[in-house]
Specification:
The protein has 209 residues and is α/β, with parallel strands linked by helices. The chain contains eight helices and seven strands; from the N terminus they run ααβαβαβαβαβαββα. It has one domain: Rossmann fold (3-Layer(aba) Sandwich), CATH 3.40.50. The longest helix is centred in the N-terminal third of the chain and has 16 residues.
Amino acid sequence: MELEESQRAVLLDVLRTARFEGLLGPGPVETHVDHALGFADIVGDPGGRALDLGSGAGVPGLTLAFACPSSGWLLLDGRRRSAVFLTEAISRLGLVGRVRVLEGRAEDMARTPLRGRLDLVVARGMGCPGATAECAAGFLRVGGRLVVSEPPAEDYGRWSSSGLGALGMGEASWVESRSGAHFVVVRQETYCPERFPRRTGQPMKRPLF
């Protein structure tokens, strides 16, 4: 999936601002956009409602909002600096109305009316598999998907079948995008049990797997 030239240009400019403000990690900003488009190769344009978990500078969420125009996007981050930047970026990119920023912790937000309502959750570098899955599961409807960028699969046990099952999720599958990036895809098979996610901080401190 590709962006229009004008979309790519303004997105790169926004991410350069994020780099200047210390919100974007190392590597060329073009590489960050291309990696985000790898998500689009996997999910297509899913329609419905999607969430970028731990959005940071809006990677991959802002890119996917352009690449998936029939979808509504939520960009979730617990840091005030990121939330302010993302709000300004949405306005700058002309995405107001279809993209919204949520400032808060996933453990708390997954217990709001968003619980069990979303079609897709994406994450890039948010945390270990157990923490990422636990923080995502509460948002997903039955049949929804979690898509996470991962290194080339060398340790399939990182995504424990039993641990995912405890969250109402099916087994993880590994997918490679056209650009060669690697992703894990997990489907929500049943609603996430009410006891998950655990209280704020617990998924990271004591991951399920």
